[in-house]
Amino acid sequence: MSGEGRTSGDAIKVLIVDDDPATRQMLQLLLRREPDLLVVGEAADGLEAVDQARQVQPDVVVMDMHLPELDGIEAIRRLKTERSSPGIVLLTVYLERAVEALAAGAYDCLCKACPRTQLLACIRQAAKARTTTRLA
Question: What is the distance between the alpha carbons of residues 21 and 82, in angstroms, rounded to a whole number?
Fold first, then answer.
């Protein structure tokens, strides 16, 4: 799953969470092309996302809103209670609950149709904000 020649020590570790396998694969392919991003895991539902995050300690979680078992909002709430809380970028086709997601602790909410460059920039910004917050 990891990018060639990269180690977790020098890259932003990303966990992909979406119930659609094609979306997870597309995100995996997109992120692998970036030398500073390393996909460390995938999850297909909210409960699995929380469990995976505890195991792989990602810097950023890219997560869908509508997930089986535990929706994106509740998964964000649970992830934000962790000692090493990741930055969370909500990637969804439904932005109607964006305010709720931000209040729960998401760094940002993006539409799945957003430009690739916007998503990549947001992932990097979420990782940087997480590091800055930890140092403060």
Answer: 27
Ranges of each domain in the chain: 8-135
Q: Tell me the C-alpha distance between 91 and 72, whole Å.
A: 10
Tell me the per-residue pLDDT of 71-126, one tens digit each, with 9 for 90 and over.
Answer: 999 999 999 998 778 999 999 888 888 899 999 999 999 999 999 999 999 999 99
Which residues is 111 bridged to in the sheet? 92
* Alpha carbons 46 and 3: distance in angstroms, whole number: 25
On the question of pLDDT at 4 being above 50, the answer is no
Using the structure block, give the residue that is written with the tokens 């992120």: 31
The neighbouring-strand residues paired with 102 are: none
* CATH T-level fold of 8-135: Rossmann fold (3.40.50)
Nearest to 57 by CA among 28, 85, 81, 36: 85
Cα angle for residues 114, 130, 8 (degrees, 5° grid): 85
d(CA 134, CA 96): 30
